[in-house]
Write a structure and sequence with these properties.
By secondary structure, the protein is an alpha/beta fold. The protein contains 8 helices and 7 strands. The protein has a 3-stranded parallel sheet, with helices on both faces.
């Protein structure tokens, strides 16, 4: 750390458990930004304790795949007592590709299982996403508004965190998080939309993608560190 400070680098974020750190080596709009970053990369690679150097790369949502083949799904899994009655179940392409029905014969998810959803958000005002599907931070839920009750550096993170708007409200204006979150935890047998494959699992929304589906690698790392903690 002293050697980094000697070269004038400011540590913006540090994730000890992941053995990663984010440094500021150039200011936005700096005419010599690219040259400064190249110089910094050379200096940092010469530090024995550093094994990898990268810029803060852009990340984006993946495509949602091809349209489902309804006839293939219907023939693969005829309706039975395990098949939810949701009206769009026949359009869920992943149902056939992941042997979900066979898995449901073993179990259909439990609230003790929490899945971190690192995406563009998860908005439970959506008619097929229930508030009960959200993970709850018990300390913040019982704490004071505007206070970091659990001391983790995030104020009012009752059900996850939004790195785009820097708050605990993980709304999803882009829609990809709702899409992937719905695959996991959409309410089954409610006569609306689709059925989540995870049943009663809890979703921990960690929003790193903006309204256009883009984000930064540093926010992705921060979200993974949050989930790990």
């Amino acid at each position: 750390m002293d050697e980094l400070a000697h070269h004038g680098y400011v540590i913006e974020q540090h994730w000890p458990r992941l053995r990663l750190a984010a440094l500021r080596v150039a200011e936005a709009g700096d005419a010599n930004q690219l040259a400064r970053m190249a110089e910094a990369a050379t200096q940092l690679r010469a530090v024995p304790a550093i094994t990898h150097v990268s810029g803060d790369l852009l990340v984006s949502a993946a495509g949602v795949g091809k349209r489902p083949i309804q006839q293939e799904i219907a023939s693969a899994f005829p309706r039975d007592e395990l098949m939810p009655g949701d009206p769009m179940i026949d359009q869920q392409w992943a149902i056939t590709r992941t042997s979900v029905i066979s898995g449901w014969q073993i179990g259909r998810g439990a609230p003790s299982v929490t899945i971190a959803l690192v995406d563009s958000g998860y908005d439970v005002i959506h008619e097929d996403l229930a508030p009960e599907s959200l993970w709850q931070n018990p300390v913040e839920a019982a704490g004071e508004p505007g206070v970091d009750d659990d001391g983790n550096g995030f104020i009012d993170d009752r059900s996850g965190w939004d790195w785009i708007e820097q708050d605990g409200i993980t709304n999803d204006p882009f829609g990809h998080g709702n899409h992937t979150g719905g695959i996991i935890a959409a309410t089954a047998d409610n006569d609306i939309g689709v059925a989540g494959v995870g049943g009663a699992v809890r979703i921990l929304p960690l929003r790193i993608l903006d309204a256009y589906g883009g984000g930064q690698m540093s926010d992705l790392i921060a979200a993974l560190a949050y989930a790990l903690e």
